[in-house]
């Protein structure tokens, strides 16, 4: 696990770009954190960097639930009533797609696929954000070095 501190939204964007450069096709990236933690902000940064389109509009998929892009899918399962709905949503239509999932607690089966787990929390006194990044079923690889500028502490 890598612990990071993002002092401002620009740092979140930069962390997203670093993560984007170290994702493999088929990776599932689970984004955990309370309302307003910054899950959509991080997903937006990952998608823009991955597609090389810094100004791409990336709406929160709160209502659409699933928002597909080229080779990457952004989902917000907050409104998902039952895990079985995932099949109908077409969340995993192409096993080569990268899938970014907000509120993954709604569909724990997603954790069986390889990828990254990112948990986002508020910094002390509400300033900035603390992030923890964990590799699941794959190595962190070069991502650990890429995230070094924001490293807060290390465990394990
Ligand atoms: N490192 C940071 N420091 C301070 N503010 C930040 C940081 N990163 C992102 N933010 C801000 O925090 C807010 C996060 O909102 P966002 O919609 O991404 O939250 P969310 O976790 O997706 O919420 P929801 O559960 O409603 O989907 C945005 O206003 C963003 O600019
Ligand atoms: Mg969101």
Automatic annotation (TrEMBL):
Keyword terms of this UniProt record: ATP-binding, Cytoplasm, Magnesium, Metal-binding, Nucleotide-binding, tRNA processing
InterPro entries: P-loop_NTPase, T6A_TsaE
A Pfam family hit: TsaE
Superkingdom assignment: Bacteria
Localization annotation: Cytoplasm
Keyword tRNA processing: yes
UniProt family annotation: Belongs to the TsaE family.
Protein name: tRNA threonylcarbamoyladenosine biosynthesis protein TsaE
């Amino acid at each position: 696990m890598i612990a990071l501190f993002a002092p401002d939204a620009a740092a979140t964007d930069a962390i997203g770009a670093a993560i984007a450069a170290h994702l493999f096709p088929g990776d599932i990236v689970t984004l955990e954190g309370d309302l307003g933690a910054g899950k959509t902000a991080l997903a937006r940064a990952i998608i823009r960097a991955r597609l090389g389109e810094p100004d791409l509009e990336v709406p929160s998929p709160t209502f659409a639930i699933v928002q597909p892009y080229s080779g990457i899918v952004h989902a917000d399962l907050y409104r998902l009533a039952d895990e079985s709905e995932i099949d109908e949503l077409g969340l995993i239509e192409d096993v080569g797609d990268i899938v970014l999932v907000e509120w993954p607690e709604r569909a724990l089966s997603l954790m069986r696929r390889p990828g990254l787990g990112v948990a986002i929390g508020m910094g002390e006194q509400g300033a900035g954000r603390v992030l923890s990044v964990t590799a699941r079923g794959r190595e962190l690889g070069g991502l650990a070095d890429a995230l070094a500028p924001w490293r807060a502490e290390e465990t394990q």
